[in-house]
Amino acid sequence: MTLEMADRGHHAEDGRRKRQTSGPSCQHVLCYQLFAVFMFIIGLVGGIFIGMYVDPKIDNKENKNCPSSTNQVINNGNTEHVPTVWNKSSIGAKSGECPFTSPVTQTRYEDTVFAPLTNAEMYQAARFLKNSGIISTLEEPTDLTQNFILYQWLDVPAKNDALNYLDGNGEKPKRYARVTVQRGADLDVMEYKVGPLGSTSTPMTSQAMTRSGEIHFNSRPYEAVEVDIMTEMLKPDLAKLADLMAESFDGIKYPDDVSLNFYNGPPSMSGTTRDTRWSIMLNGFGYDQGDVDLIHILPLSGRVHHPGTNTSEWYAYDFHYLNQGPYKTARDLMDAYKAGAIRKVRLDKGFRASIVDRIFPKRDTSKPLREQANKQGPRTYYPTGPRYKIDGTNVKWMDWSFEISGGQIRGPALFDVKFKGERILYELAVNDIALNYATDSHSQNNIIYADATYGIMGGDTPGTVIKDIDCPVHGSVLQTSFWWPTTQRAYNMSSICVYEADGQSALWRHAGMGFEAGLRNRYLVVSVPVVIGNYDYTFEFHFFLDGKIFNYARASGYIQASFWDRDDPKWPDKTRDSFGYRVSDYMSGPIHDHMFGFKVDFDLIDKNNSFQLVNWKAGPILEAIRTQNASIPDAPEYFIYNETRYIDWEPVQTERAITKQAHQQFMVVVNTREKNKWGVERGYVIEPLATGSQSLNQHPILNALSFTKHHCAVTKRKEDEKTLTSMYDVNRMNNPQGYLEKFIDNESIVDDDIVNWVTVGFLHIPTSEDMPMTVRVETGFLLRPFNFFDRTASFDMPQHTDTIDGVLKESEPNFEQCAEPPPKYCRFC
Hints:
The protein is mainly beta. Strands 1, 2, 21, 22, 23, 24, 25, 31, 32, 34, 35, 38, 39 and 40 form a 14-stranded mixed β-sheet that branches. Strands 4, 15, 16, 17, 18, 19, 20, 30, 33, 36 and 37 form an 11-stranded mixed β-sheet that branches. Strand 1 (72-75) and strand 2 form a beta hairpin. Among the domains are: 3-54; 224-359, Nuclear Transport Factor 2, Chain: A (Roll); 433-454 and 533-797, Distorted Sandwich (Beta-galactosidase, Chain A, domain 5). The chain has 10 helices and 41 strands. It is globular. GO terms for molecular function: copper ion binding; primary methylamine oxidase activity; quinone binding. Residues 379-793 form the Copper amine oxidase catalytic domain. The active site is at residues 451, 535.
């Protein structure tokens, strides 16, 4: 009973007394009065007592049963509705639990055109390749001469076939797997299209998508069989260096206390040979051998020559210690070390024992909690239930609809994006991430990564959604599958989160003299966290009520550090060198970049669009006017100053790459045949957020990863130009096969099916704030309506309006106050 309820009970009792018509005796009246007083006191005290624990307006003490929200996991064809346990005793009579109806109406991924491959489909494709003799094993590979599967992902159907089906004019495309096969017996890598998948009357086939020998064996991605062989091969050499390691690195023993890092590529410039740099790093975590410490990389490194499959011809060479070398063999290095012919380093005694405290991401218990930090922060949840629907991988929300897709190589993708029934995008997809490091280290200088080579969404370190960190506890979690070559098995991971967010700000607002009006900013989020070695990336797609789409790429995780040689005579300043700052006792942070390549295939109303540059300039009045009418002889007299800002409209006729200009450019995709009410071509503008630019000029990275040179490129769409890069080119940079400039061959892009290849990124100079964890560095781009609508597109939503005369008053739909249901989710349970 609350205070309000107790008071109502008192007045009801008083009313009953007044309605009595007979005249009771004085004793009865006294009894009634005493009884009423007694009941009033009981009600008052009881109401106060209960209200202290129920009504937050009375007491704001921490509620140990603080309600949260519900969770659901869509399991790649099976929806697991996690039981929700509600503690009704912790919720007062005025409020109950918020209603929650699952937004998931259908869970079979195989029923949608663009859905990621499922486990079952991967196994079906693998068994067919095994039965066809294309692969030699479906067990854990043990020998490089075997033929086995590296990766699998959905082979997206041809665009015309997909559109014919989606628009109701054709058959539903069948599903196929794209499978990469490492063929040790043939010394190459092949890609196959395998299918159709699922239960179908059409017989399965495997179609070779590359020629035999086209992808050289030595340009393949790294995999566990090769790494294990190199690790074993290095053991005798590192045993010879046992004394050096123990004396230099705080008593470490190999292999107990260190791990080998081979991912300091690329292994080859030509793709026809294979040499890998290796370094050693301390084992710092102690939770799982898969957790690597790329912060504490030690100054001992070398190279391994390991082409082909004949491991008897492999050898180690080029040994370096503290950047001193090269020494042909480990014995040569050890002899120089014992003779005192080289400089030495000594880590402080006990340094290794402090590593977990230094870098493990746990709260620093030596410092007090911040004031009020023991209270739960603000939360958002659904007071009337979710407003989005998920059917397989099709999502609908507030007149938006789209298909979620993706694969382990390229990462997340969205297809068939529509707003208010009109198609905006056919494809919006992450394509690759490029990184280039610079540091003063034999093992670390000029490290180049193209993350599609390792697998963006399901490589050696598959990422998973961390509930209530990446994703609110009420969000819908979708699972995707990836193929792990180490075990030749398919695995599920909870990789995609969908939820509606409250921006807690205005999408639009105005407060006038006689009225106020606004619309609260709420938007739908598709969040995809991925883990690639030491770095964590989160890709987010935000859909807004007015037709905008924000696309974010965020980075966190651990930096890849380099050893800080504090006694190196080259660097008189002991806080920094030419490549970065000192960030720990023995570590510096190498400068590097993160460049994200996206495929943006607009289909504004239909697939034939055009590209324009709207240039924002400044100059004399006559110059501005003549951009539209060259025959004007003189500037009008009514201009006060003879300099103005103006726009110069430039239709782009042929394929082009666009880099950052001194003046502002608006990159606009339009449908020239579709006009808004005012006769203007309907379009969308591509607006990069603050983004880094490529500073290299002659570096070999500019061949294989040439997309990093440009902020946008526009090309005619072709089925054989599906992706921005080739996953093999980073291992054959002198002979790339799938680079962006290859797509730009002067073809017309006017009123045609075109693709924009958008690149955004950031330059990273690691500082002490990146230790132990990099905190949310981000970039991205906005896709914004540009004369696409006749007016602001969000005025079909309930909004807040209030006028001073009270004639017009609008608000969002009412709802009853309710409590967020508690979550039940545990990744490691």
